[in-house]
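Recall the central idea of this unit: under ordinary conditions, the amino acid sequence of a chain determines the structure it adopts. In this exercise we apply that idea directly, starting from the sequence alone.
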Amino acid sequence: MSWVNVGDEKNLPQGTGIAAWVAGKAVAIFNLGKDGLFALENTDPATGVGVLARGLICEMEGELCVASPIYKQHYSLTTGKCIEDANLQATPFEVKTEQGQVFVLAKG
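Accordingly, the structure predicted from this sequence is:
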């Protein structure tokens, strides 16, 4: 595993997500300002479509989540687990910043 630079932190819009390629996978990166950065695989587990970066950020059951824009399932930004369906999970990725640059830990 290695850290992949996905760009400058100042280019990440706050309160929403963007998608970036990390080692051949589309990763949704969410910049929540003071709450930090989060990353999940961009694929919606319910449909297989790469749309999670376009989802709405919210809080469900005390957890920060993204609501998939297709069927509106909510996925925890920390664990990737679906709030409504325990059989669904988005793969979480570690994300960090160093000297203003955003890095995602590539898996596999």
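The chain has no helices and ten strands.
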